[in-house]
Each structure stands twice: as structure tokens, then as C-alpha cells.
Amino acid sequence: MPKKVNKISRSLLSWYDREARDLPWRKFGKDKQDPYKVWISEIMLQQTTVSVVIPYFNAFIKKWPTNKELSQASLSEIQRAWSGLGYYSRARNLFECSIIINSRFNNNFPESEKELLKLPGIGAYTAAAISAIAFNNRSVVIDGNIKRVISRLFLLKKPIKSNYNEIWRFTNLVTPDTRVGDFVQALMDLGSQICKPSKPLCESCPLILECDARKNNVELLIPKRIKKNTKPNRNGSAFVIKNNDCVLIYKRKSKGLLAGLDSFPTFGWDNQNDERLNFLKWPH
Fold first, then answer.
1. Which of 44, 134, 258, 274 could form a disulfide with 53 if both were Cys (CB 3.0 to 4.6 A apart)?
2. Which domain holds residue 248?
3. Could you give phi then psi for residue 267, rounded to 5 degrees?
């Protein structure tokens, strides 16, 4: 096992040096990563693909190149810049987190997972990713791509959702003591570009000789898939109320659907008493 583990890290880093995606938040070689850009990218990449994130990230950084400038922005400004990315609670968390980073840490991001976890919008994965990528700490980072890569490398047959501890153990095993940030991003790139869910490009994989799933010709069966639950439909109505050149909008509650966003008067989305009562207050 030690021989396999060492070969995985060496082969993967060598491949990354040649094939790494050139993403706007990444720096290569001896250049240090910018924790602010790593943070923004990781928050944007939650539930959103890289191709969608890139133009939003570039526009965001152009408008607020540092956390100091972001901390001086209003929530409404940040929400407007976020418009179209979805999952708008992320914008509110960015707003709150930037203020804390400015006031409590003088715009210097905390480096440890423990301290990062105390910040709004930063969970276990994001804390580990920032700690590893921005500061090269030996954090165990596990996202969807990494779960799939590790499951195939070590022939982990259980569904991903019920096998986190084992995936964590093997990810920890292969994570090197040096170039941790590069290794984490290499795993992500491998999962995104090569070790794909349904059509893995095994012949192009730098780890093909180390992959237990490939050796057993079961790479398409690993990790085991479970049937997803049907997503419920939610129906509601929005009302465009005009008065000459004016349109009625209001700011939604700080929690719940589209929290804190400007909105037309709506009815039926939340199915809550306060929504129905608010609707009755609008001029008819």
C-alpha cells in the first residue's frame, strides 16, 4: 500500500504540472495563492459548474479585488453581482464573512480549518479546501469529484453518501505532506476532466495502473449509484403591480426562499401564514 500511495501522489502531481486547468483563481509554481480569490471561487463553485462561475468570478474580482473593498460593499450590491448564480444565501454569507475578515482579522484570512469553520457560509469542505489550497496545509479535502476518484482507485463499492468515513480515510492516506494545494486541485481536475461519472477516459488517466476499479473492469459501476428522490414541484404566483412608470417591489425576509432579495409581491411559494398576510397588505 505505501508504494501505491506514493506512486499516486507522484504521478498525479506530474500530470497536474502538465495538464492543470488554467483557472483565474489559481496560481502556479512558486507564486502564492490569494486566499481571498480561493475563498470567492470556492463559495461560487458550491452547487455551480466551473464554466458558469468563471465570468462571474472575473466580474466580481474586477469590482472588488480585495476583501477590504468587498467589506465596504452593501448587501444589495453583492446580491446584484451574484444575480444569475442561484443559491442566493451564498451572497449574504459572503457579505457577512467579508465584514468579519475585515474587522476581526484585518483582512488576513485565518489559515486553520478550525478558525475558518467559524465564519459564515464556510462548512467542512470549504474550510478544508481554503486551508489546503490557499495555505498548503495538510487538510483532507473531499468534493464530489474526489469521492469518485478515490472510490475507483481503491474499489470502494458502497454508495458515496453512506461511505464518507472510508473515503476520508483513503483520501487522507494519499494526501502528501508537500504541495497539498496542488494535489487537491489535481484530484479535482482528474475527476472533472478524466475520471468522469459515466464516461471515464481511463486510457488518458495518469493513475490507470493504480486503479483497482479499472483492473477489475468495473469503473462504470464504481461508485455505486442510488436512485435519486424525485424533486417536488413548488408553484406560486408573482404580481407585477404598476403605477405609471413605477413597479412595486419589496425586500423578502432574511430567511427562506430568495432570502433578502428584492422581489415582486408573490403568493403561494412559501405557503406560510406571514406570506399570505403580507399579500393582503399590498394595495389592490
1. 44
2. 237-281
3. -150, 135
Tens-place pLDDT, residues 228-273 = 777 788 788 888 888 888 888 877 777 777 777 777 887 776 655 4
Closest CA to 86 of 35, 49, 136: 49
Pairing type for strands 262-263 and 250-251 reads antiparallel
Contact (CB, 8 A) for 59 and 81? yes
176 contacts 183 by C-beta, under 8 angstroms: yes
d(CA 140, CA 124): 10
159 contact partners, CB below 8 Å, separation of at least 6: 223, 224, 225, 226
Whether residues 191 and 111 share a domain: the answer is: yes
Q: Is residue 73 part of a domain?
A: yes
Through-space distance between the first and last CA atoms of the chain, rounded to whole angstroms: 72
* Cell numbers linked to 205: 488517466
- The DSSP result for 64-107, as a single string, is --SHHHHHTS-HHHHHHHHTTS--THHHHHHHHHHHHHHHHHTT
Per the CB < 8 A criterion, the answer to whether 24 and 38 are in contact is no
**What are the pLDDT digits (tens) for 87-107?**
889 999 999 999 999 999 999
Q: What is the largest CA-CA distance in the chain?
A: 75
Catalytic residue (one of 42, 113, 210, 219): 42
Q: Domain count of the chain?
A: 2
pTM over the 0.70 mark: yes
238: helix, strand or coil: strand
CATH number of the domain that 160 lies in?
A: 1.10.340.30
> What's the one-letter identity of residue 40?
I
